[in-house]
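Q: Structure tokens for this one, please.
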Amino acid sequence: MQVTETLNSGLKREIKVTVPAGDMEAKLMERLNDAKTKVRINGFRPGKVPIPHLRKVYGKSFMAEVVNEILSNSTRHIIADRGEKAAMQPEVTMTEDEKEAEKILAGGADFEFQLSYEVIPAIEIKDFAGISVTRQVFDVPDSEIDEQVARVAESSRSYETKDGKAADGDRVTIDYVGKIDGVAFEGGAGVDQPLVIGSKEFIPGFEEQLVGIKAGDEKQITVSFPENYSAPHLAGREATFDVTVKEVAKPGKLEINDEMAKSLGLESLDKLREIVRGQIENQFGQMTRQKLKRQLLDQLDQTYQFEAPSKLVEAEFDNIWNQVNRDLEAAGRTFADEETTEEEARAEYTKLAERRVRLGLVLAEIGDKAGVTVADDEVQRALFETVRRFPANQQQEAFEFYRSNPNAISSIRAPLFEEKVIDHLLAEITVTDQKVSKEELMADDEEAETAKPAKKAAPKKAAAKKADADSADEPKKKAAPKKKAAAKDAE
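A: Here is the predicted structure, written as tokens:
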């Protein structure tokens, strides 16, 4: 086998491979001799079929197997022998001339093919001593727990149907249909929707107009969606809701005690408080983690500047771009609505894709050198967690899809590996804890999310949340639950 480099430019490589006809013939003869003892052909005793006859019957198909075997095995070995790592599966080019292909299959010509690929650039991992980050920590006070426990208790409060008009604090059960310019819009309808007046679950101005209504009443409510509403196509727009009142109910006594906790399936109020504290601390801990990670990735991005393989960038860009367009379509928006152009957006997301690819390669190299691994049982647990997010009737199908699809399993393993690499880095760099208030922690998050120009708001939602490779496999968060999309303000 003769291997000749025909292109070496930047990260691009092209390799010409020539397998002499004599070598192809030798491989073919091995297969024919092996088949001689196994095949059964009418008119010949077992093992007595002449090689020329076998070649006439099986020659082309056996030679095609030889070609596939060479392509499968030699590609990997050639790149490994060159001390290179291909960024993606190499492209293989062979002759398209039918006569030439026939000669190769007949053993009368050398087999030539060309490999085209990009290499992963060599990355020299630098000392981490110069990297320092600040970890913002919010110590959850008892008052925060008290507030959440009260909300839990409120959600389990009993209500009793009453005659007469609805007052603040009463629960009404309604059907509603939302319209803009007289036309019903998607997600703007609800059936048998319970709503506690004064809970501020619906958009501002909605609940106040329900005061005084009675069971059986029909009323049209006019409100305006907030300018910062989660669905951009509704933000700032006036809408009317045709409301039918099914029931009015008055609240029972609010109980925050062991009996209330037991009604939720817990052993005591203390146990409820313990669970609530854990959930709140986990929520704020995730915010802290994301901000810490963002700082770290920003510094890595500044430290490691190199040419990223274009094929990887193109693939990453396609993922981002498809998501951007799906979100725009779902929101009924265009690039013009976001005060930008498709060309400007493409340029921005190309830079984003380049950054993500570079950071992904850097983290992979750091992890490999540090011996970071992800155990199969860790992948299994993450797979079960992923499948649980699917509707119950789709979970088995989803499980089988992941188990039978190596690329899908890689999408489970990759973020686990990344988080372990981040943990390794955090143990190597300087991390300074800073106590902050809840408002400071959340304000920082909002600032980070809005750091890009406001005109990119809709595309940002689709792609920028994954920008720093910090949530590459996180399910995209919906703007609001479907039943709340029209009338409830996003929290």
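A few notes: The longest strand covers residues 183-196. The first helix runs from residue 21 to 36.
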